[in-house]
Specification:
The complex is a heterodimer of chains A (554) and B (103). Chain A has helices spanning 2-28, 34-57, 61-66, 73-84, 87-100, 102-112, 114-129, 134-138, 146-178, 182-230, 235-245, 262-275, 280-283, 292-323, 347-396, 403-427, 434-457, 463-482, 485-489, 505-522, 526-533, 535-544. Chain A is an all-alpha fold. The model of chain A is unreliable at 24-30 (pLDDT under 50). The chains are: A mainly alpha (554), B mainly alpha (103). Chains A and B meet through helix 6, helix 7, helix 11, helix 12 and helix 14 of A and helix 1, helix 2 and helix 3 of B.
Chain lengths: 554, 103
């Protein structure tokens, strides 16, 4: 009966989204891009088929949260890459290169250099100590109620901010590319995300990520080959033409705007480099592999793919400077140098149109939308785990919930998150939400990351220290972003920012470390002595995997 | 054997101490190298952007683009080096240790 219901729901969804698209296309666009619609529907149908298959394999909480630890290192590497290569990177970084040149490359290096550090310092310990969520590691030897409450809360905040960015981006992108109403687009994304996660859990989410990563990388490689062909496969030629056609000329070869203020630059890089290790939807991927060996392999594969992708995006942005920047049809009212049609983030889309016509444009548009869908599904799973595994199972039920209820809570949590995401997406319609990415990374780098690192490496960390340090980082990051030029001036309309930098990490991250350190040192409770004594056992498990959670056999 | 006995044997075992010492030394040195090179890059970006605009003869691109590419590719190679060592020698040590202590 249940399976029948699932099949029915999924079939209805497939046809409903197909019909919605057909309607919207007929109503809004004179010449619909059938390539985009076709490829996107093929993606939706195949991922829903995978979800149907995965639903049969998702029987326990372990299956739901971590695919029973049964994902291979190679698969997980592709899935991590899929999680990290969001549409924001594809559109945002390419447009950064398009408008300010080398700045985009500086940003790219900063945005991916956290990966080797995760490999050296975090990945294997994470796998050896944890089961389903980041909080598992923090609460390993610390107060299971207090630290879990904190960690679940801060993970939830990061997930929500990230979700808003993705939902708003999805609505705008679909509206622009397919002509679908913003609200309907946001609801479609919400519904599909809930279907993937509630029915298919981590297995389905992983496969959605893998497919999307392959699509995105092949699209990127194909477009790069087309772009290089345009310049006779000479990078030098491409750069020279870019310099010749850009308003800022040779200045685009060096830092243009990003480093106008050194402190702001350092704050941005700290947040980017250390933020990755605090992103719950990325970190929980390490629990899907069977052991530390596979965890290491997955970082290697993921980092290779992510590095390649960022390099491709930089090349494409550079190619767009001369190709898109010289053609009036890509600018509003045909004025070269004026605003780009569809906003500055559309540079790479116009490049696809210029190099590969409707076919390439349609392909890239469909891939960009599939990307948003996949990232949103990963976020929903991370948020649902924080609610059901941390808050419900471990805080409310003190670690002894009935497995069936925990599963039910996690599924309803996903549905709830889907509704929240749709509401937030509609509420933030038309807002400039770029600052929310900085906020999500800033909070991740200032609350989750310091506490995670100290919990793994410092014997002296106590529960009080962890909670107060994490909260200090979380609150200071929130307040500093609120007072920053990006929010205080641009969103709230005040004339002058109370805090001069857009990125908080330079101040909030050290604050979190220092607070955690001082409070832990001052903590003389009997509980703190037990916690310090338990560090050795934790250390041995982290180093050797002795007693670590094994993969579930099916 | 109770788990606290096993813990005591593991903790004092010379092979455990050697494993932890060697792996951590490698991990921390690599972290230091990556962070060090990146800090140099960010410092140049912030204070000496002119250093990134040099075009070394015969290399085509500017020093800025070369250093960004080198950072990405170099740090991936260091990551690969770590995986080869950790999944090879260090995992053999761990396996031998756990088999010997029999936990």
């Amino acid at each position: 009966m249940k399976r029948l219901l699932q099949t029915g729901v999924m079939l209805a969804l497939c046809s409903a989204s197909a019909m919605a698209f057909a309607d919207a296309v007929a109503a809004h666009k004179p010449q619909p891009n059938y390539t985009a619609i076709g490829i996107f529907l093929a993606f939706v149908v195949s991922t829903i088929a995978i979800t149907y298959w995965a639903a049969g394999k998702t029987r326990s909480a372990a299956d739901f949260y971590s695919a029973g630890g049964g994902i291979s290192g190679m698969q997980n590497g592709f899935a991590i890459a899929g999680d990290y290569m969001s549409a924001a990177v594809l559109l945002g970084v390419s447009s950064m290169v398009f408008s300010t040149g080398f700045d985009g490359m500086i940003y790219s290096v900063s945005a991916i250099l956290g990966w080797p550090l995760i490999m050296f310092l975090i990945a294997e310990r994470l796998r050896n100590l944890g089961r389903f969520t980041l909080a598992d590691i923090i609460a390993y030897r610390l107060d299971p109620i207090g630290t879990r409450l904190f960690s679940a809360f801060s993970s939830f905040v990061v997930v929500c901010f990230y979700l808003i960015v993705q939902m708003v981006g999805a609505g705008q992108l679909i509206n622009l590319l397919f002509g679908l109403d913003y609200e309907i687009a946001v609801i479609c994304v919400g519904v599909l995300m809930v279907v993937y996660v509630t029915f298919g859990g981590m297995v389905a989410t992983t496969w959605v990520q893998i497919i999307k990563a392959v699509l995105l990388l092949s699209g990127g490689i194909l477009l790069t080959i087309l772009a290089l062909e345009h310049f006779g496969f000479s990078i030098e030629e491409m750069l020279n033409t870019a310099v010749a056609s850009h308003q800022s000329g040779a200045q685009i070869l060096g830092p243009l705007k990003i480093a106008s203020d050194p402190l702001s630059m350092i704050s941005l890089s700290l947040g980017l480099v250390f933020g990755i290790a605090g992103l719950p939807h990325i970190m929980m991927r390490f629990f899907t592999v069977p052991d530390a060996k596979a965890a290491r392999k997955s970082v290697l594969v993921a980092y290779g793919l992510i590095g390649l992708f960022f390099i491709l995006v930089c090349v494409l942005g550079t190619a767009a400077i001369s190709i898109v920047g010289q053609q009036p049809q890509f600018f509003e009212q045909g004025v070269i140098g004026g605003p780009l049609l569809g906003g500055v983030n559309m540079a790479i889309m116009h490049l696809a149109q210029a190099l590969g016509g409707d076919l390439m444009f349609g392909f890239l548009a469909a891939v960009a939308f599939a990307t948003i869908l996949a990232v949103v599904a990963g976020l929903a799973l991370a948020g649902a785990s924080a609610i059901s595994h941390d808050l419900y199972a471990n805080v409310l039920c003190k670690g002894t919930p009935s497995p069936e209820t925990e599963m039910r809570v996690s599924r309803w949590a996903t549905v709830g998150l889907g509704i929240v995401a749709v509401i937030l997406g509609i509420a933030f319609k038309g807002q400039n939400v770029a600052f929310l990415v900085a906020l999500a990374f800033g909070i991740a780098a200032s609350s989750n990351f310091p506490i995670l690192l100290l919990a793994m490496y410092w014997k002296g960390l106590t529960s009080k220290g962890a909670i107060s340090g994490g909260l200090a980082g979380l609150i200071s990051a929130l307040v500093l972003v609120l007072l920053s030029p990006g929010v205080w001036v641009k969103v709230l309309g005040h004339s002058q920012a109370l805090f001069p930098y857009d990125y908080p990490a330079l101040f909030s991250m050290p604050l979190a470390f220092v607070t955690a350190w001082v409070v832990s040192l001052l903590d003389r409770s009997s509980r703190s002595a037990v916690e310090r004594a338990a560090f050795e056992q934790q250390c041995i498990r982290a180093e050797t995997g002795w007693g670590a959670d094994k993969a579930v056999q099916h | 054997m109770s788990s606290s006995d096993a813990l005591n044997i593991l903790r004092k075992h010379p092979r455990y101490q050697a494993l932890v010492q060697r792996r951590n030394r490698l991990a921390f040195s690599l972290t230091f190298i990556v962070l060090g090179c990146y800090s140099l890059f960010v410092s140049a970006v912030s204070w000496r952007p002119d250093l990134l605009l040099i075009e070394p003869a015969g290399f085509g691109l500017t020093t800025g683009i070369w250093s960004a590419l080198l950072l990405i590719i170099g740090s991936w190679l260091l990551t690969a080096l770590y995986v080869v060592r950790a999944n090879g020698a260090f995992d053999h040590m761990t396996h031998a240790l756990l088999t010997e202590v029999n936990v």
